[in-house]
Amino acid sequence: KLAEMARRMGCSTDALALGAILAQPFQPRVLSGAVTKEQLRSNLDALSVAEKLMGTEEGKEVLKELMDECKMESEEYWKERSALKWN
User: 12 exposed, middle or buried (CB, 10 Å; 0-12, 13-18, 19+)?
Assistant: First the structure.
């Protein structure tokens, strides 16, 4: 689903994910996991993706769809996290 939305926005999945966080009404802090120059370039595209997500009708639609799709109740999140082997 994320890949489909990224295609609609004309960007990579990582740029869309980071852009969606940057497009939030709060003051987000985004941490990039980029290791290569290519990954860093793709991550930096998140700035222009965030502008599209906030400033175009298609972008607003994608952002709403993405946020609705990724929503998770906190109890479910912490249950899942606590079950991870590295905890």
Answer: buried
